[in-house]
């Protein structure tokens, strides 16, 4: 039997009982019909009052904070309260689940490296993540509800935003915080738009560096090729004496050697950039490195400079191994030493040393008394093909890649490169290795962390 029928049956039963009671009272008062109807009416009123009281308790619960349990009064109203409470609890659970999923979704968007901005049909900001705020110079809280074109006043931005989703990706060079931004607009919903921003500063810089690199390589190779072509034409078209022929062949050999050196340095750079970082289980003796660098430095100087390297006693007292790749370490030290020799006038001094540090690390130092370098050039010395004096560098046989190779080797070995120089007073180059890459072979008295 349904709850409604049960409730109706209970009401009829109550009316019948009260009608019988009213009839008995009416019979005693000589008005049995009136008593019967009065009893039935009283049954209806009692049943209605009870339902009204239970309904009022349910309404009071619904009007409240719904924290407690719903009232359980009788079968019909108790069942209604229970069903209502269960529906509300299920809705609350669903809402909590949706809020949690929405929060996770928004956190995922916040973690994105791209900027995300949601706009309504009037180009007002609905929501944006932190990267979007940084990219466009906005405030994630204060600027909500603001028209974005009133905040980002860039013609390129406004044009891209109004062009719609068929618009190609556009860039905003150096807008807000000196960033180059790529913008992408996509329509969704009822006139709403999704704006994606991406920081392409590094990519544009890399593209510019790549173009400069190609241009520099082309220029560096074109110069000796032009000379070689001229010499070949001269040899093939003019009758030359043997001495003149030998002189031209010697100059051709020099230009060929220059191109070979350039190609070798380019291959070295490509290998350094494309290979994995050196492991920490291959050890190279600092004593062997210094001895080989000394041989090459003296061969390049040919007695024109005062070359100073640590003596045997100093090498034994500072004996250590470095974790790294022997060829790379040798290339870095050779480049620093050869630069010191090339840019030090005849009779000048070039000193190379190795020093252990109290912290456990070690430092290679190359000090010369050469022409020196102005302060404004120091930050760019390790750039590819950067020359303080291009003509002098070519005369001394430099390719403009030596210090770039040194920088890559130093970074790959977790070391640091320090440069000190002053025009007319020489230069100092230091490579300092961390303690994790230095293995001391003999008890030593370490020198101060920074030489005088």
Determine Rg (CA atoms, Å): 44 Å
Instruction: Supply the helix-strand structural class.
Output: alpha+beta
DSSP strand content: 15-25%
Fraction in helix: 40-55%
Low-confidence stretches: 444-452
Strand arrangement in the largest pleated sheet:
2-1-5-4-3
Give the number of helices.
Answer: 13
Largest sheet: 5 strands, antiparallel
Secondary-structure element series: HHHEEHHHEEEHHEHEHEHEEHHEEE
Shape: elongated
On the 0 to 100 scale, the average pLDDT is 79
Please report the distance between the alpha carbons of the first and last residues: 103 Å
Number of strands: 13
Structure description:
With 452 residues, the chain is of the alpha+beta class. The protein has helices at 3-28, 32-63, 75-111, 130-136, 148-151, 155-162, 201-237, 242-274, 286-301, 312-317, 326-342, 390-395, 402-412, and strands at residues 115-119, 125-128, 170-175, 179-188, 192-199, 283-285, 306-308, 320-323, 349-356, 362-368, 416-421, 427-433, 438-440. Strands 2-1-5-4-3 form a five-stranded antiparallel beta sheet, sandwiched between helices. A five-stranded mixed beta sheet has the order 7-9-10-12-11, covered by helices on one side. Helix 1 (3-28) packs antiparallel against helix 2. The longest helix has 37 residues, at 75-111. The termini are far apart.
